[in-house]
Write a structure and sequence with these properties.
- There is one protein chain.
- By secondary structure, this protein is of the alpha+beta class.
- The protein has one domain: Glutaredoxin, CATH 3.40.30.
- It is 29% helix and 29% strand.
- The protein contains six helices and nine strands.
- The longest helix is centred in the middle third of the chain and has 13 residues.
- It is globular, with a radius of gyration of 15 Å.
Length: 170
């Protein structure tokens, strides 16, 4: 399992891009994790699924609400990561009004989630392999803080906790 001090694993995540530009076409685009985190401080929070109750009511809205404060604390980008496809993440981002605040990153085949060792098996609930709920502050591709939730919990991966950690790790 990933831990503080580890470099993020190599791989790609996808994001649905709404406006063509900066080398990106409209629709799903793949982003290299190493290149996308190089020289940046990125707050990443992961959750079990788009449109699920806690994720939609608390997790994403908290990061949208605290986006400016996180950026003032030195965070260059905020990523929401879920084992969903880029189309679903794009639609959910529109519904959650994340534009310009939180990048909705898809780990469609759970490759990144498996590589970091933070899977959650929800097969018995008809959802298959998903991501555990967690957050991490990543500096130049290296994990500076990692907050992993216990089963069914939402206590340490929230935006307020990440903001306090970003302010401490400037």
């Amino acid at each position: 399992m990933l831990k503080v001090g580890d470099k993020l694993p190599a791989g790609t995540l996808s994001e649905f891009v709404e406006v063509e530009g900066n080398g990106c076409s409209i629709g799903p685009n793949a982003f290299d994790i190493e290149k996308s985190t190089a020289g940046k401080t990125v707050a990443i929070f992961a959750l079990p699924g788009a449109y699920t109750p806690t994720c939609s009511a608390k997790h994403v809205p908290g990061y949208v609400e605290h986006a400016e404060a996180l950026k003032a604390a030195g965070v260059d980008e905020i990523w929401c990561l879920s084992v969903n496809d880029a189309f679903v993440m794009g639609a959910w981002g529109r519904d959650q009004k994340t534009g310009g605040k939180v990048r909705m990153m898809a780990d469609g085949s759970a490759a990144f989630t498996q590589a970091v060792g933070l899977t959650l098996d929800l097969t018995s609930r008809g959802m298959g392999l998903r991501s555990n709920r967690y957050s991490m502050l990543v500096k130049d591709g290296v994990v500076a803080t990692l907050n992993i939730e216990g089963p069914g919990k939402f206590e340490v991966s929230d935006a307020a906790t990440m903001l306090a950690q970003a302010q401490q790790n400037r």
